[in-house]
């Protein structure tokens, strides 16, 4: 029997390097470094201010001068943010609709102005206690960093690749979730993606994650220890119930967010006045209902301790929901990513408090919290794979991935049946008529 001969090294075709792809990948690496540095700085400064605010305002010896100083500081911060928004309208809100429009070549970025304005505006808004998140702005900051790398090195020819890479890096550095950063670009920003674009997003995402690790260590937003896996029998009772509940409430959130924006604009027509008033309200809420301020990371940690009664959780859920809708309606720079997860956690915890009379779920509080996060996020954003992977990375174990996928499917199905649009599609539709920018001719 004749043996097959294999080609020798001399017979193999020469390796060919695609210079264009290598350039994209190299610039994606630089984008990951730049985005990681910007987002880690953004995250750390906000965290420091939030810690300082909580420490000062939780003191039992708050004197009238301190209270007046706090109120005055919030008014000045609100006025400053209103000026930033007036000069650069694209820094408003989360920034995700702006990134989607940029990638669709329906508006342009001015990174030299928008990056520092978004950074400062977000720091002031979250520092004052508005119920907004830093993760949506981190996506826009990452995309702006990618745009900067493109304009400086890519001569404006790689904006599609590097803005996408920067957006993925933004999520990665904000959440310590590099896979979710890439998947968000696939599911939400593009809906379809080329291998080169996917690779550039992967490179930037994992590079930014490395920057985050180097700067802060394995820092997590929610420090939740989960060591129990839900029994399979609970999938068609508890997990199904959480999926239905989060699907319903996520759809309500989408409708409420758009409705709040319209109502607030009608009551307070001037944009600057809306922002300043929101900062004044945040100053008061920080004093009387501190747990519902900010993104909600500390609130989730409080609920995860398992000491809260169902009526306390319900009250916190209502307060966090209303304050989040109001804060976002103001137009201040800040997102809804983290508040969404906090609301989902509260829904999961509330269901956990109600069910012990019917099912043996007492040991699974953290599971319910994470399932609530997944379902609510997916119902609002309509990105089921991203939601499941994001919470899996935050949980630190793929043992719970099947439950997260199951609740994602249920929540998505319920939201689709109710006919509500994904929130970022609705916000994109609002954005574009206000910013009719012609796409570049060489796009």
UniProtKB/TrEMBL annotation:
Bilayer-spanning residue ranges: 24-46, 66-85, 161-184, 196-214, 234-260, 272-290, 310-329, 336-359, 365-391, 403-424
Keyword entries, A-Z: Chloride, Ion transport, Membrane, Transmembrane, Transmembrane helix, Transport
Pfam families on file: Voltage_CLC
Main location: membrane
GO-annotated molecular function: voltage-gated chloride channel activity
Gene Ontology cellular component list: plasma membrane
Subcellular compartments: Membrane
Domain of life: Bacteria
UniProt keyword annotation of Oxidoreductase present: no
Keyword Metal-binding: no
InterPro entries: Cl-channel_core (IPR014743), ClC (IPR001807)
Membrane protein topology class: Multi-pass membrane protein
Record-linked PANTHER family: CHLORIDE CHANNEL PROTEIN
Stated name of the protein: Cl-channel voltage-gated family protein
Annotated source species: uncultured Spirochaetota bacterium
Lineage: Bacteria, Pseudomonadati, Spirochaetota, environmental samples
């Amino acid at each position: 029997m004749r043996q097959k001969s294999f080609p020798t090294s001399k017979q193999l075709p020469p390796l060919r390097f695609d210079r264009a792809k290598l350039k994209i990948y190299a610039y994606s690496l630089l984008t990951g470094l730049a985005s990681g540095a910007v987002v880690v700085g953004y995250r750390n400064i906000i965290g420091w201010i939030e810690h300082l605010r909580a420490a000062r305002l939780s003191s039992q010896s708050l004197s009238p001068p301190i209270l007046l100083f706090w109120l005055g500081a919030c008014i000045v911060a609100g006025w400053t943010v209103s000026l930033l928004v007036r000069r650069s309208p694209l820094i408003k809100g989360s920034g995700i609709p702006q990134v989607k429009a940029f990638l669709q070549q329906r508006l342009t970025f001015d990174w030299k102005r928008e990056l520092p304005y978004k950074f400062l505006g977000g720091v002031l808004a979250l520092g004052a206690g508005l119920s907004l998140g830093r993760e949506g702005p981190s996506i826009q900051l990452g995309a702006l960093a990618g745009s900067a790398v493109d304009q400086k090195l890519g001569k404006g020819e790689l904006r599609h690749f590097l803005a996408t890479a920067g957006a993925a890096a933004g999520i990665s550095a904000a959440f310590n979730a590099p896979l979710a950063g890439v998947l968000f670009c696939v599911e939400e920003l593009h809906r379809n993606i080329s291998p080169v674009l996917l690779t550039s997003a992967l490179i930037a995402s994992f590079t930014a994650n490395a920057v985050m690790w180097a700067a802060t260590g394995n820092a997590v937003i929610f420090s939740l220890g989960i060591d129990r896996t839900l029994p399979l029998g609970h999938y068609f009772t508890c997990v199904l119930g959480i999926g239905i509940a989060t699907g319903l409430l996520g759809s309500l959130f989408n409708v409420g967010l758009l409705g709040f924006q319209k109502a607030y604009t009608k009551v307070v027509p001037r944009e600057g006045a809306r922002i300043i008033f929101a900062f004044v309200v945040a100053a008061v809420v920080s004093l009387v209902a501190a747990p519902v301020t900010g993104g909600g990371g500390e609130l989730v940690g409080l609920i995860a301790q398992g000491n809260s009664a169902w009526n306390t959780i319900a009250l916190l859920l209502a307060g966090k929901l209303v304050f989040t809708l109001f804060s976002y309606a103001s137009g201040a720079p800040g997102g809804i990513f983290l508040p969404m997860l906090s609301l989902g956690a509260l829904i999961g915890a509330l269901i956990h408090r109600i069910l012990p009379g019917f099912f043996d779920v007492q040991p699974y509080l953290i599971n319910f919290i994470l399932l609530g996060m997944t379902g609510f996020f997916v119902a609002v954003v309509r990105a089921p794979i991203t939601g499941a992977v994001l919470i899996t990375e935050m949980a630190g174990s793929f043992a719970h991935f099947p439950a997260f996928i199951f609740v994602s499917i249920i929540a998505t199905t319920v939201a689709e049946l109710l006919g509500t649009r994904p929130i970022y599609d609705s916000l994109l539709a609002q954005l574009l008529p206000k910013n009719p920018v012609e796409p570049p001719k060489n796009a």
